[in-house]
Design brief:
heterodimer; A: about 475 residues; alpha/beta; twelve-stranded mixed β-sheet; ten-stranded mixed β-sheet; 13 helices; 22 strands; B: about 475 residues; 2 domains; 11 helices
């Protein structure tokens, strides 16, 4: 067992866990204070209203207690983190203009290659800053905006003022407040009315320095009848000390718009991933969250969708893998506020080597929302006796004509399934891997091919030596 | 949320309760410790559920506590609830155990049924041990602590080793203008390889003011024993009903708990099954129908602490008008409980726009060689089923009624006494029609059992010549 987990650790280290030099941190101060927030705002050359937004959020953050439910957050020493680090001068538009060290990192992670192959646009976020951004020419012509929220504050202040912080207000929770105070880059995507982006846009997030806090801020606005497909990937260098990723992601899907948001979260195990993701879906709009949660040591993430207009659709598909020393406290929230809305949550989790996977979900159907249909399915697979799983689904139904079903199951890999495969000459390790891949298949089949393969490979790596 | 006051439920009142029953020192101490827990505990201990505490909150301080013995003889008021031909029956009027009557054969076999205070004075050794290892633990729930501190009535049932009690033991609790809160402790102690079926029926004869009925039931099953315990709660709308049930299921035991909750303004139920021995098997069946402004707060947990244990909870509810319910359930499978199989289902049917139903079916699994599933749903009356019945000539209203009665049927059919089963259906039908029905008169009894009640006043001598009689 130990040997196997070492292999996995080694692999993460060579493939994702390496670290670059951190010279850009030399003049940075650790810790959080009004001065730090003002400094961030100054470095980013922000307008006064943005600085005010940050300071209000900081006050809110300071006034709030650390949540006591979910994973244990008491070890987080907020004054020990770096809240801002700017590794490059500005966002490069050409790959060659990215500083060589950082370029090297993303090349190792295979980002430019993917862009050439099948992406419509790419953003690369390194520590607190977007270091690279590109978008296909024809999309630019159609009025699609794909930039960082930081740049958008300067370039499109009206759009930012109209939407930023309206879906996830800074006072929403402690970590949303923290993010609002010290937020750094993340993509801002604006899709004009009727524009359908066929190929996905992608951002890649990377934390490099020890004790770094990354505060991704993402905002996607899809105007009526537009479509966008967005993918984010995350990795971090491996250290003994913890790193913090507290993101806020806001999505607005206007009438008839479609947003599909895919996250492959593969932070190293020293990362606290505390994320607030929320979408507003108007009439006939459709929002899908797809979450592959493989990494991070402590993860708390419950993407939510508010269905605000008649006929809106919501879908949350997630897969969590909890290995040694990992707690994946994930789930989904769907709030039905309009009639004829429908939603689906499918959650799959696999726990191994003492890992703990928790599903925490809320399904709320408001009074006056008629003909609502909702299905929730959570399945958990436990691969050994040290591993744990819990399911806490909340259902609040205040409408008599709603149809709501929830099902959950916990099981282990069936001996008979293993035997069946082994009898066909497949070794135990591969057989187990196949069964687990089959178990999470409803999730992976929704991913673009390359990602599905990558996720299966990640799972297979993590599964090495699972039969103990 | 209602303001929480203590009213008459003070430490001095605990002392007085203990004194008025002439209790031994260990019980007084047990009560006082429970009181400390009651005073200290919040309404909801688990952070998972704190959001929903408002649903079953009320001010316990508004209810009276009085130790003066009941002055009215309630014996005459059982007319309409009894045909007079019952055996194995316990009659309780408010806080007084009026009458206990057992089949001669089981009485000879050693079956003991006593009022809780009598049990304490008669079997101090056994009772001391039971209270030292109380299943319903004060530190786990505020109102369990409340009951442990203030209980003023109750029943102790002791089924000796190997005894099979063929016909069910019925306990009929009648409430009539109580001057005190009714705080009942029932302990069922079934020894190894015994078998018993206990049915508790709660009725209101008359009520002028809101009243409190708190009930703690402990099922202490022995190895390889079979215990069935059912509760039919038909209290009127002035009742606040609190129920705490705890089941200890050791090796190879089989325990079924059935609850049918139809009455009260607030019902708060906590049911815990602890599967403590290899091969233990438990089933919980719970149904409720709430209408008007009723609020039901039900929590049922399955705790697997041993390998090869099997458990299931089936909960069903129908909600009408402005009623609200919450169902919380948790399957907890301990690290050592390999090869356990657990199932938790909660299905609610909403009949009105203003009704509300929340459900939190949880799983907490610490080992892998298990099978644990839960399912929950909230839906309305199935239109297809209605159409099917209408196509066969039933009017819509009748069709819906049939579907609702059918929704409850699998649980109601588990009640061991026909009269109680019919009574439940009678009340459910009434609720569906928006009528306030009670099972109080000869006509109703006639209608549902086809049997005219024997006048209890005249037959009291029949009761008295039986095995036991308590005034």
């Amino acid at each position: 067992m130990t040997a196997a987990s070492e292999i996995v650790t080694d692999d993460y280290k060579t493939k994702y866990g390496f670290a670059d030099s951190t010279g850009y941190l030399d003049n940075r101060r650790r810790g959080l204070s009004e001065d730090v927030v003002k400094e961030i705002s100054r470095i980013r050359d922000e307008p006064g209203w943005m600085e005010e937004f940050r300071l209000r959020a900081l006050k809110n953050f300071m006034d709030r207690p650390v949540p006591t439910w979910g994973v244990d957050l008491s070890p987080i020493q907020f004054q020990d983190y770096y809240y801002y680090a700017q590794p490059a001068k500005e966002t490069a538009k050409r790959w060659e203009d990215v500083p060589p060290e950082i370029r090297n990192t993303f090349e190792k992670l295979g980002i430019p290659e993917a862009e050439r192959k099948f992406l419509a646009g790419v953003g690369a976020i390194y520590e607190s800053q977007e270091v690279y951004n590109s978008l296909q020419k024809d999309l630019q012509k159609q009025g699609v905006i794909f930039t960082s929220v930081g740049n958008a504050v300067k370039e499109y202040p009206d759009l930012i003022r109209k939407y930023l912080g309206t879906i996830v207000p800074p006072s929403d929770n402690k970590f949303a407040a923290l993010n609002s105070a010290v937020w750094s880059d993340g993509p801002f995507i604006y899709v004009p009315e009727g524009v359908k982006i066929a190929m996905p846009l992608q951002s890649y997030f990377r934390i490099n320095a020890q004790g770094m806090g990354q505060f991704e801020r993402t905002l996607i606005v899809a105007e009526p009848n537009s479509e966008v497909h967005y993918i984010e990937g995350c990795t971090a260098a491996m250290y003994q000390k913890s790193m913090l990723h507290a993101a806020v992601v806001e999505l607005v899907a206007k009438k008839g718009a479609k947003i599909r948001y895919i996250t492959i979260q593969n932070w190293s195990k020293n990362v606290y991933n505390l994320v607030t993701k929320r979408a507003h879906a108007y009439e006939d709009a459709s929002v899908t969250w797809l979450n592959g949660e493989v990494g991070s040591g402590r993860n708390m993430k419950y993407p939510s969708i508010y269905l605000l207009g008649r006929g809106a659709k919501a879908e949350i598909l997630s897969m969590a893998y909890a290995g040694a020393n990992q707690i994946q406290d994930t789930g989904g929230k769907i709030v039905h506020l309009a009639s004829d809305t429908s939603s689906k949550i499918i959650s799959k989790s696999v726990s191994k080597d003492g890992g703990q996977a928790i599903y925490r979900g809320l399904l709320h159907i408001a009074r006056g929302a008629h003909n609502v249909k909702s299905t929730v399915r959570c399945d958990a697979l436990l691969l050994d006796e040290q591993s744990k799983t819990s399911t806490f689904p909340y259902m609040e139904v205040m409408a008599e004509d709603a149809t709501v079903t929830h099902e959950a199951s916990v099981g282990k890999v069936g001996e008979d399934q293993l035997f069946y495969l082994m009898a066909r000459g497949i070794n135990e390790r591969d057989a187990l891997s196949m069964i687990v891949n089959g178990f999470v298949e409803p999730f992976t089949k929704e991913l673009p091919m390359t990602y599905a393969i990558e996720l299966n490979r990640l799972m297979a790596l993590e599964m090495t030596g699972a039969v103990g | 949320m209602a303001q929480q006051t203590m009213g008459s439920f003070t430490e001095a009142a605990v002392e007085e309760t203990s004194k008025s029953h002439g209790e031994p020192e260990w019980l007084r101490e047990f009560r006082l410790e429970s009181f400390r827990q009651f005073a200290k505990l919040p309404l909801e201990i688990s952070p998972l559920y704190t959001k929903y505490t408002g649903l079953s909150s009320f001010d316990i301080g508004q209810f009276p506590l009085d130790h003066t013995p009941e002055s009215i003889d309630l014996r005459t008021h059982f007319e309409g609830y009894l045909t007079g031909r019952e055996t194995n029956v316990i009659l309780q009027g408010n806080t007084r155990t009026i009458h206990i009557d057992l089949d001669e054969s089981v009485a000879k076999g050693g079956l003991e049924v006593l009022g809780i205070n009598e049990a304490i004075s008669k079997n101090p050794g056994l009772m001391k041990e039971i209270f030292a290892n109380k299943l319903v633990k004060s530190e786990r729930e505020k109102y369990a602590a409340f009951n442990n501190a203030f209980f003023n009535t109750g029943t102790f049932i002791h089924v000796p080793r190997g005894l099979e009690v063929a016909s069910p033991i019925r306990k009929i609790q009648l409430v009539r203008n109580p001057t005190t809160s009714i705080i009942d402790q029932t302990i069922i102690y079934a020894e190894e390889q015994s078998r018993v079926n206990f049915l508790e029926e709660l009725y209101t004869r008359e009520s002028a003011r809101p009243y409190l009925l708190s009930s703690v039931t402990e099922v202490r099953a022995g190895p390889a024993s079979t215990v069935d315990a059912s509760t039919l709660q038909f209290l009127d709308e002035r009742a606040v009903y609190l129920s705490n049930k705890e089941v200890d299921a050791p090796k190879d035991s089989k325990v079924n708990i059935t609850s049918i909750f139809l009455g009260s303004s607030i019902t708060r139920s906590r049911l815990n099954f602890d599967l403590n021995g290899r091969g233990a098997n438990v089933d919980g069946f719970e149904v409720f129908f709430c209408n008007g402004k009723q609020r039901f707060d039900l929590e049922s947990n399955l705790n697997h602490n041993s390998p090869d244990t099997t458990a299931a909870i089936h909960a069903r509810g129908v909600l009408k008008d402005e009623s609200q319910s919450i169902f919380k359930g948790m399957i907890k499978i301990n690290h050592v409980a390999k090869n356990s199989n657990s199932y938790l289902a909660h299905h609610a049917m909403l009949l009105d726009k203003r009704a509300r139903s929340d459900g939190i079916p949880g799983l907490d699994i610490d080992t892998n060689e298990v099978k644990a599933t839960h399912s929950a749903s909230v839906a309305q009356v199935d239109e297809e089923q209605v159409f099917y019945l209408e196509a066969r000539g039933l009017p819509e209203d009748e069709a819906k009624k049939m579907i609702i009665v059918g929704f409850f049927e699998p649980v109601i059919s588990r009640v061991p006494v026909e009269m109680a089963r019919e009574g439940a259906k009678f009340i459910i039908e009434g609720k569906w029609r928006g009528e306030r029905r009670r099972l109080v008169d000869r006509e109703t009894l006639m209608a549902i059992t086809g049997e005219a009640p024997v006048d209890v006043r005249q037959s009291s001598d029949v009761f008295e010549r039986h095995y036991k009689y308590r005034a």
